Amino acid sequence: MSSERNANRRVIIVGGGFAGLAAAKALADAPVDVTLIDRTNHHLFQPLLYQVAMAGLSPADIAAPIRKVLRHQKNASVLLGEVVGVDLEQRRVHARDDRTVHALPYDHLVLAMGARTSYFGNDAWREHAIGLKTIDDAIEIRRRVLVAFEAAEREPEGAERDGLLTFAVIGGGPTGVELAGALRELAHFVLRRDFRRIDSDHARVVLIEGDDRLLQGMDPASSDAARAQLEDLGVEVRLGDMVTGVDAEGVQLGDDHLRARTVLWSAGVEAVPLTRELGVEVDRGGRVKVKPDCSVPGHPEVFVVGDAATLEGADGRPLPGVSPVAMQQGEYVARLIAEHRLPEQRAPFRYHDKGQMATVGRRRAVAETRRVRLKGFLAWMAWLLVHVWYLIGFRNRVAVLLNWTWQYATYQRGARLITGDRLGAHRRPKAADEEAG
């Protein structure tokens, strides 16, 4: 096919996360016009989002403006807007800005919208158990955690103070493990000299997992090592406990009620609602069941990648929702588009698993590849190097590295800001306030 004909092909990418940005960058030299649409103006390095939530990093350290990332790519443009619909038959994407809805035609479409927090049908829990998927989530978690300590400082000894100083983390995957470890370190190392009436080191951090071990995607030995390191840090790990309720006072675990005024949710994710509106088959989590080439059945010009798609790996199990899968899928579909391959010419996507890792805290982590398993300091160093390497932008790499070096040397975190409704998350009932006043 001639380059003149290829030059007219229009590629729309929905989502500026790992998959979408990888696809856009991989099309830099292709004879196509790329339009990337995202609701936010930045690419977010989600693996370090928990550090923003735990006051270790500022949002700017782990985010980069999408326009800046793609500004030297002549065939790429960026639109700030929300995709509200896709017409697969007419090949139109309907995107809304602050004024109107625009119908944008495409020749190839890459849907890489990512995922959102799932409460498994219990959406009433959302008010009291906050998930961690966006910068806004991280800032709200940071606010709730810091306000809890501030509120405890005002309380006399008793059940109310104990509830304020108890933090429940629901979900024993990498995010839950990292949140629990970082929260315990915040209480133990960072805040203990900041208060006069409370000892922040007495704060309880309870990690709750419904299965029989943490980090289900890793080897059982790594799961055991992560649990041992968490417990050595002072985190209470509760396995085999199913959450049956969450309210303003805490978490219901069967017949047992854990009084915790701050509840963090990392137990599940689901695809964004747009996937269910495409009129194609999806799984229980709303992820599109794509073909081996990541295309939508019946629409070879449309690809779904990353957390919005479900695809079985070589072992017959669905590929995990992690950034390496998303990036490899983004680059893979970009090659198919650049080469304009027909469906029968496409080799199926193959995920090259380079390993998994999770940090527990200072000098504590687990990491594994097919051949090597690490724990403790060596795993922690590997985790540091990998995450700094994959951050987008030289400034971000330097900022994160300097922040971590300073924190390691001083046991301090510089982003301990309370913003927004400063006292709203843990304000006592009105009657109690009046009685106290």
Feature tags:
disordered C terminus; 31% helix; 2 domains; disordered N terminus; FAD/NAD(P)-binding domain; globular; 26 strands; alpha/beta; 5-stranded parallel sheet
Q: Can you walk through the features of this model?
A:
The relative contact order is 0.16. The chain contains 12 helices and 26 strands. The radius of gyration is 23 Å and the shape is globular. The termini are far apart. It has 2 domains: 3-39 and 81-117 and 269-345, 3-Layer(bba) Sandwich (FAD/NAD(P)-binding domain), CATH 3.50.50.60; 123-267 and 362-430, FAD/NAD(P)-binding domain (3-Layer(bba) Sandwich), CATH 3.50.50.100. It has helices at 3-6, 18-26, 49-53, 66-69, 135-154, 159-164, 174-190, 220-233, 323-339, 377-390, 394-410, 430-436, and strands at residues 10-14, 33-38, 42-44, 63-65, 76-80, 82-87, 92-96, 101-105, 108-111, 115-117, 129-130, 166-170, 204-209, 236-239, 245-247, 250-253, 256-259, 262-265, 269-271, 288-289, 295-296, 299-304, 309-310, 356-361, 364-368, 373-375. The strands form 8 sheets. Strands 5-2-1-9-22-21 form a 6-stranded mixed β-sheet, with helices on one face. A 5-stranded parallel β-sheet has the order 11-18-12-13-14. A 3-stranded antiparallel β-sheet has the order 6-7-8, with no helix packed on it. By secondary structure, the protein is of the alpha/beta class.
